[in-house]
Amino acid sequence: MRPLPTAFAGVLFSALTLAGCGTGGDTAAVASPTPTAAPSTAEAGFPATVNAGNGDVTISKRPQRIVSLSPTATETLFAIGAGSQVVAVDDLSNHPPQAPKSSLSGFKPNAEAIIAQRPDLVVLSNDTENIVAELTKVKVPVLLEPAAVKLDEAYDQIEDLGAATGNQAAAEKLAGDIKAEIERLAAAAPKDKQLSFYHELDNTGFSANSGTFVGQIYDLFGLINIADKAPAAAGSYPKLSTEFIAKADPDLIFLADTKCCGQSRDTLAKRPGWSKLSAVTGDKVIPLDDDVASRWGPRIAELAKAISTAARGATAKATG
Protein backbone atom coordinates (compact mmCIF):
# COMPACT_ATOMS: atom_id res chain seq x y z
CA MET A 1 0.00 0.00 0.00
CA ARG A 2 1.32 3.44 -0.87
CA PRO A 3 1.77 6.48 1.42
CA LEU A 4 -1.32 8.30 2.64
CA PRO A 5 -2.62 10.73 0.05
CA THR A 6 -1.14 14.05 0.50
CA ALA A 7 0.39 12.97 -2.79
CA PHE A 8 -1.54 14.89 -5.35
CA ALA A 9 -1.20 18.07 -3.40
CA GLY A 10 2.31 17.95 -2.28
CA VAL A 11 3.31 14.74 -0.67
CA LEU A 12 0.80 12.09 -1.90
CA PHE A 13 0.57 13.50 -5.42
CA SER A 14 4.34 13.70 -5.40
CA ALA A 15 4.71 10.39 -3.69
CA LEU A 16 2.86 8.13 -5.93
CA THR A 17 5.21 9.65 -8.36
CA LEU A 18 7.50 11.32 -6.15
CA ALA A 19 4.69 11.12 -5.56
CA GLY A 20 0.08 10.34 -13.37
CA CYS A 21 2.52 12.29 -24.46
CA GLY A 22 6.11 12.60 -24.39
CA THR A 23 8.20 10.29 -26.53
CA GLY A 24 10.06 8.94 -23.54
CA GLY A 25 13.33 9.84 -25.22
CA ASP A 26 15.32 12.80 -26.39
CA THR A 27 14.10 14.79 -29.33
CA ALA A 28 16.48 14.99 -32.27
CA ALA A 29 18.14 18.27 -33.07
CA VAL A 30 17.18 19.86 -36.38
CA ALA A 31 20.16 20.05 -38.72
CA SER A 32 21.10 23.47 -40.05
CA PRO A 33 21.22 23.84 -43.85
CA THR A 34 24.83 25.03 -43.60
CA PRO A 35 27.47 24.34 -40.93
CA THR A 36 27.56 26.94 -38.16
CA ALA A 37 29.75 27.51 -35.17
CA ALA A 38 28.54 26.25 -31.82
CA PRO A 39 26.35 28.88 -30.16
CA SER A 40 27.83 30.89 -27.32
CA THR A 41 26.39 30.61 -23.83
CA ALA A 42 24.45 33.83 -24.33
CA GLU A 43 23.14 32.75 -27.75
CA ALA A 44 21.89 29.50 -26.25
CA GLY A 45 19.75 31.41 -23.76
CA PHE A 46 22.05 31.43 -20.75
CA PRO A 47 22.29 32.68 -18.15
CA ALA A 48 18.61 31.80 -17.65
CA THR A 49 16.41 32.82 -14.74
CA VAL A 50 13.47 30.58 -13.89
CA ASN A 51 10.73 31.44 -11.42
CA ALA A 52 10.21 28.23 -9.46
CA GLY A 53 8.69 27.28 -6.13
CA ASN A 54 11.87 28.46 -4.40
CA GLY A 55 11.84 31.85 -6.13
CA ASP A 56 13.90 33.13 -9.04
CA VAL A 57 16.71 30.71 -9.84
CA THR A 58 19.50 31.79 -12.19
CA ILE A 59 21.35 29.10 -14.11
CA SER A 60 24.60 30.40 -15.55
CA LYS A 61 25.14 27.85 -18.31
CA ARG A 62 23.40 24.92 -19.96
CA PRO A 63 23.43 22.12 -17.36
CA GLN A 64 25.10 18.84 -18.30
CA ARG A 65 24.78 16.96 -15.00
CA ILE A 66 21.13 17.15 -13.93
CA VAL A 67 19.83 15.23 -10.93
CA SER A 68 16.05 14.76 -10.77
CA LEU A 69 14.43 13.89 -7.46
CA SER A 70 10.91 14.03 -8.89
CA PRO A 71 9.38 11.35 -11.14
CA THR A 72 7.28 14.02 -12.84
CA ALA A 73 10.35 16.14 -13.56
CA THR A 74 12.20 13.06 -14.82
CA GLU A 75 9.45 12.31 -17.32
CA THR A 76 9.41 15.93 -18.43
CA LEU A 77 13.18 16.22 -18.84
CA PHE A 78 13.26 13.23 -21.17
CA ALA A 79 10.16 14.35 -23.05
CA ILE A 80 11.66 17.77 -23.88
CA GLY A 81 14.97 16.35 -25.07
CA ALA A 82 17.06 16.86 -21.94
CA GLY A 83 17.54 13.16 -21.22
CA SER A 84 21.20 13.14 -22.24
CA GLN A 85 21.83 15.87 -19.65
CA VAL A 86 20.44 13.78 -16.77
CA VAL A 87 23.02 11.84 -14.74
CA ALA A 88 20.84 10.49 -11.93
CA VAL A 89 17.18 10.24 -10.93
CA ASP A 90 15.50 9.25 -7.68
CA ASP A 91 14.41 5.77 -6.68
CA LEU A 92 10.77 6.38 -7.68
CA SER A 93 11.49 7.64 -11.21
CA ASN A 94 10.49 4.68 -13.37
CA HIS A 95 9.65 6.38 -16.67
CA PRO A 96 11.10 6.41 -19.22
CA PRO A 97 12.96 3.09 -18.73
CA GLN A 98 16.29 4.58 -19.80
CA ALA A 99 16.30 7.16 -17.01
CA PRO A 100 19.41 6.63 -14.83
CA LYS A 101 17.66 5.40 -11.70
CA SER A 102 19.63 5.56 -8.46
CA SER A 103 19.16 5.10 -4.73
CA LEU A 104 18.63 8.84 -4.23
CA SER A 105 15.38 9.72 -2.49
CA GLY A 106 13.14 12.72 -2.98
CA PHE A 107 11.35 12.07 0.32
CA LYS A 108 14.46 11.65 2.43
CA PRO A 109 17.08 13.49 0.41
CA ASN A 110 20.72 13.15 1.41
CA ALA A 111 22.67 16.26 0.51
CA GLU A 112 26.04 14.48 0.49
CA ALA A 113 24.78 11.75 -1.83
CA ILE A 114 23.30 14.31 -4.20
CA ILE A 115 26.45 16.45 -4.21
CA ALA A 116 28.51 13.33 -4.95
CA GLN A 117 26.81 13.26 -8.36
CA ARG A 118 28.49 16.63 -9.12
CA PRO A 119 25.19 18.14 -10.32
CA ASP A 120 24.96 21.49 -12.06
CA LEU A 121 21.16 21.42 -11.60
CA VAL A 122 18.89 19.58 -9.17
CA VAL A 123 15.14 19.39 -9.74
CA LEU A 124 12.74 18.30 -6.98
CA SER A 125 9.11 18.61 -5.95
CA ASN A 126 9.44 18.69 -2.15
CA ASP A 127 11.74 20.69 0.09
CA THR A 128 12.08 18.03 2.77
CA GLU A 129 15.04 17.96 5.15
CA ASN A 130 15.65 21.60 4.16
CA ILE A 131 17.39 20.23 1.09
CA VAL A 132 16.99 23.36 -1.04
CA ALA A 133 19.01 25.43 1.44
CA GLU A 134 21.57 22.65 1.87
CA LEU A 135 22.27 22.48 -1.86
CA THR A 136 22.09 26.24 -2.40
CA LYS A 137 24.70 26.65 0.35
CA VAL A 138 27.23 24.79 -1.82
CA LYS A 139 26.27 26.73 -4.96
CA VAL A 140 24.21 23.98 -6.62
CA PRO A 141 21.29 25.47 -8.62
CA VAL A 142 18.00 23.97 -7.42
CA LEU A 143 14.55 24.13 -9.02
CA LEU A 144 11.66 23.36 -6.69
CA GLU A 145 8.66 22.38 -8.83
CA PRO A 146 5.86 21.38 -6.41
CA ALA A 147 2.85 19.25 -7.32
CA ALA A 148 0.67 21.23 -9.70
CA VAL A 149 -2.74 22.33 -8.46
CA LYS A 150 -3.99 23.52 -11.86
CA LEU A 151 -3.36 22.44 -15.44
CA ASP A 152 -1.74 25.77 -16.22
CA GLU A 153 0.80 25.10 -13.48
CA ALA A 154 1.68 21.77 -15.09
CA TYR A 155 2.25 23.46 -18.45
CA ASP A 156 4.31 26.18 -16.76
CA GLN A 157 6.57 23.62 -15.11
CA ILE A 158 7.28 21.96 -18.44
CA GLU A 159 8.33 25.33 -19.83
CA ASP A 160 10.39 26.04 -16.69
CA LEU A 161 12.42 22.89 -17.27
CA GLY A 162 12.82 23.80 -20.92
CA ALA A 163 14.25 27.21 -20.06
CA ALA A 164 16.49 25.75 -17.34
CA THR A 165 18.00 23.09 -19.60
CA GLY A 166 18.32 24.89 -22.93
CA ASN A 167 15.34 23.05 -24.46
CA GLN A 168 12.80 25.86 -24.38
CA ALA A 169 11.38 25.44 -27.90
CA ALA A 170 10.75 21.72 -27.38
CA ALA A 171 9.20 22.38 -23.97
CA GLU A 172 6.87 25.06 -25.31
CA LYS A 173 5.78 22.74 -28.11
CA LEU A 174 5.17 19.86 -25.70
CA ALA A 175 3.11 22.01 -23.32
CA GLY A 176 1.12 23.41 -26.24
CA ASP A 177 0.46 19.95 -27.71
CA ILE A 178 -0.72 18.56 -24.38
CA LYS A 179 -2.99 21.52 -23.76
CA ALA A 180 -4.48 21.29 -27.26
CA GLU A 181 -5.13 17.55 -26.91
CA ILE A 182 -6.84 17.90 -23.53
CA GLU A 183 -8.98 20.76 -24.82
CA ARG A 184 -9.92 18.69 -27.88
CA LEU A 185 -10.94 15.72 -25.74
CA ALA A 186 -12.93 17.91 -23.36
CA ALA A 187 -14.75 19.67 -26.19
CA ALA A 188 -15.83 16.33 -27.66
CA ALA A 189 -17.01 14.88 -24.36
CA PRO A 190 -20.73 14.19 -23.91
CA LYS A 191 -22.02 16.45 -21.17
CA ASP A 192 -25.74 16.00 -21.59
CA LYS A 193 -25.93 13.04 -19.21
CA GLN A 194 -24.66 13.63 -15.67
CA LEU A 195 -22.53 10.62 -14.76
CA SER A 196 -21.09 10.17 -11.28
CA PHE A 197 -17.70 8.64 -10.51
CA TYR A 198 -15.34 7.50 -7.78
CA HIS A 199 -11.59 7.92 -8.20
CA GLU A 200 -9.72 5.49 -5.94
CA LEU A 201 -6.21 6.43 -4.84
CA ASP A 202 -5.63 3.30 -2.78
CA ASN A 203 -7.55 0.34 -1.45
CA THR A 204 -8.28 2.00 1.90
CA GLY A 205 -10.75 4.42 0.29
CA PHE A 206 -8.70 7.58 -0.21
CA SER A 207 -10.05 9.67 -3.08
CA ALA A 208 -9.67 13.20 -4.48
CA ASN A 209 -12.33 15.89 -4.73
CA SER A 210 -12.89 18.37 -7.56
CA GLY A 211 -10.55 20.95 -6.04
CA THR A 212 -7.49 18.78 -6.64
CA PHE A 213 -5.39 18.59 -9.79
CA VAL A 214 -6.78 15.22 -10.86
CA GLY A 215 -10.29 16.26 -9.83
CA GLN A 216 -10.14 19.24 -12.16
CA ILE A 217 -9.28 16.98 -15.07
CA TYR A 218 -12.40 14.89 -14.44
CA ASP A 219 -14.42 18.11 -14.20
CA LEU A 220 -13.51 18.94 -17.81
CA PHE A 221 -15.62 15.99 -18.88
CA GLY A 222 -18.74 16.95 -16.94
CA LEU A 223 -18.49 14.08 -14.45
CA ILE A 224 -19.85 14.33 -10.90
CA ASN A 225 -17.33 13.47 -8.19
CA ILE A 226 -18.85 11.59 -5.24
CA ALA A 227 -15.89 12.71 -3.08
CA ASP A 228 -17.28 16.25 -3.22
CA LYS A 229 -20.02 15.16 -0.81
CA ALA A 230 -17.59 13.98 1.85
CA PRO A 231 -17.54 16.09 5.05
CA ALA A 232 -15.54 19.29 4.61
CA ALA A 233 -13.25 18.28 7.46
CA ALA A 234 -12.08 15.33 5.36
CA GLY A 235 -10.08 17.72 3.17
CA SER A 236 -9.23 17.56 -0.52
CA TYR A 237 -8.25 13.89 -0.28
CA PRO A 238 -11.02 12.35 1.83
CA LYS A 239 -10.97 8.78 3.02
CA LEU A 240 -14.35 7.42 1.97
CA SER A 241 -15.90 4.46 3.75
CA THR A 242 -17.07 1.43 1.80
CA GLU A 243 -20.59 2.27 2.97
CA PHE A 244 -20.35 5.84 1.68
CA ILE A 245 -19.21 4.64 -1.75
CA ALA A 246 -21.80 1.86 -1.89
CA LYS A 247 -24.58 4.32 -1.03
CA ALA A 248 -23.37 6.79 -3.69
CA ASP A 249 -23.35 3.93 -6.24
CA PRO A 250 -21.21 5.80 -8.81
CA ASP A 251 -21.76 5.21 -12.52
CA LEU A 252 -18.02 4.91 -13.05
CA ILE A 253 -15.14 3.78 -10.86
CA PHE A 254 -11.57 4.74 -11.80
CA LEU A 255 -8.83 2.72 -10.14
CA ALA A 256 -5.51 4.50 -9.65
CA ASP A 257 -4.27 1.63 -7.46
CA THR A 258 -3.91 -1.19 -9.97
CA LYS A 259 -0.12 -1.41 -9.60
CA CYS A 260 0.42 -0.45 -5.98
CA CYS A 261 -2.49 -2.43 -4.57
CA GLY A 262 -3.52 -4.91 -7.29
CA GLN A 263 -7.08 -3.60 -7.51
CA SER A 264 -9.50 -4.58 -10.29
CA ARG A 265 -13.19 -5.08 -10.97
CA ASP A 266 -12.89 -8.56 -9.44
CA THR A 267 -11.33 -7.32 -6.19
CA LEU A 268 -13.99 -4.62 -5.91
CA ALA A 269 -16.74 -7.19 -6.28
CA LYS A 270 -15.41 -8.97 -3.18
CA ARG A 271 -15.73 -5.90 -0.98
CA PRO A 272 -18.75 -5.89 1.39
CA GLY A 273 -21.78 -4.44 -0.39
CA TRP A 274 -19.94 -3.75 -3.65
CA SER A 275 -20.86 -6.73 -5.81
CA LYS A 276 -24.08 -5.03 -6.92
CA LEU A 277 -22.67 -1.56 -7.55
CA SER A 278 -23.72 -0.20 -10.95
CA ALA A 279 -20.12 0.24 -12.06
CA VAL A 280 -19.25 -3.33 -11.09
CA THR A 281 -22.27 -5.03 -12.64
CA GLY A 282 -22.19 -2.76 -15.69
CA ASP A 283 -18.49 -3.33 -16.36
CA LYS A 284 -17.69 0.35 -15.85
CA VAL A 285 -14.64 -0.06 -13.63
CA ILE A 286 -11.74 1.62 -15.39
CA PRO A 287 -8.19 0.56 -14.48
CA LEU A 288 -5.66 3.38 -14.67
CA ASP A 289 -1.88 3.36 -14.64
CA ASP A 290 -1.06 4.53 -11.10
CA ASP A 291 1.85 6.66 -12.27
CA VAL A 292 -0.02 8.36 -15.10
CA ALA A 293 -2.90 9.11 -12.73
CA SER A 294 -0.67 10.63 -10.04
CA ARG A 295 1.83 12.73 -11.98
CA TRP A 296 1.34 16.16 -13.48
CA GLY A 297 3.84 15.89 -16.32
CA PRO A 298 3.83 15.00 -20.01
CA ARG A 299 1.44 12.04 -19.71
CA ILE A 300 -1.57 13.93 -18.33
CA ALA A 301 -3.17 13.81 -21.77
CA GLU A 302 -3.14 9.99 -21.45
CA LEU A 303 -5.19 10.30 -18.26
CA ALA A 304 -7.57 12.72 -19.97
CA LYS A 305 -7.98 10.27 -22.85
CA ALA A 306 -8.81 7.39 -20.48
CA ILE A 307 -11.45 9.52 -18.75
CA SER A 308 -12.86 10.70 -22.07
CA THR A 309 -13.11 7.15 -23.44
CA ALA A 310 -14.84 5.91 -20.29
CA ALA A 311 -17.32 8.81 -20.26
CA ARG A 312 -18.22 8.27 -23.93
CA GLY A 313 -18.59 4.53 -23.42
CA ALA A 314 -20.81 4.91 -20.38
CA THR A 315 -22.98 7.51 -22.12
CA ALA A 316 -23.37 5.26 -25.15
CA LYS A 317 -24.50 2.36 -22.94
CA ALA A 318 -26.96 4.57 -21.08
CA THR A 319 -28.53 5.93 -24.25
CA GLY A 320 -28.30 2.73 -26.26
Give the arrangement of secondary structure elements.
Blueprint: H1 12-15, E1 48-52, E2 55-59, E3 66-68, H2 71-79, E4 86-89, H3 111-115, E5 121-124, H4 131-137, E6 142-144, H5 151-165, H6 168-188, E7 196-200, H7 213-219, E8 224-225, H8 242-248, E9 252-255, H9 265-269, H10 278-281, E10 285-287, H11 290-294, H12 300-319
Parallel strand pairs: 3-4, 3-5, 5-6, 7-8, 7-9, 9-10
Antiparallel strand pairs: 1-2
Helix pairs in contact: 5-6, 6-12
CATH class of the largest domain: Alpha Beta
CATH superfamily of the largest domain: Nitrogenase molybdenum iron protein domain
SSE series: HEEEHEHEHEHHEHEHEHHEHH
| Biggest sheet layout | 4 strands, parallel
Which stretches of 5+ consecutive residues score pLDDT under 50? 1-43
Helical residue percent band: 25-40%
Rg over alpha carbons: 21 Å
Strand content: 5-15%
Q: What is the correct CATH architecture of the largest domain?
A: 3-Layer(aba) Sandwich
Q: Structural class, judged by helices and strands?
A: alpha/beta
| Span of the ends, CA to CA | 39 Å
Label the overall shape.
elongated
Total helical elements = 12
Reading side by side through the largest sheet, how are the strands ordered? 4-3-5-6
Number of domains: 2
Average pLDDT confidence is 87
CATH topology of the largest domain: Rossmann fold
Strand runs, count = 10
